[in-house]
Amino acid sequence: MSKPLYKVTFLNHGKVYELYARRVDSGRLWGFVEIAELVFDVHDGLVVDPTEERLRDEFGDTRALHLPMQAILRVEEVEKKGQSAIRDAVSGEKVVTPFPLPAKPR
Fold first, then answer.
1. pLDDT in tens, 37-50
2. Across the chain, how many H-helices and E-strands are there?
């Protein structure tokens, strides 16, 4: 049997983050939830999701993420991984990271 997969939705600096992880436990630190074994997409092609890249840059080297219980909005056990996201906490719209453009020539 494969390990369970969890979709964890939490607040972070005024934004709602949606990450996928293989392990969610009540943390050893009182009042914290431990999120471990984060799951990110592996892109072999040219299509790259900037949100997924941003999350991988921020949390890619994280062994375990300890989140305060108050920051957790939802934990769902899911069958397969969906798209990770960063949303605005007020509007719920996805936060889009603009693609960097070259500087305009003078």
1. 988 876 555 556 67
2. 1, 6
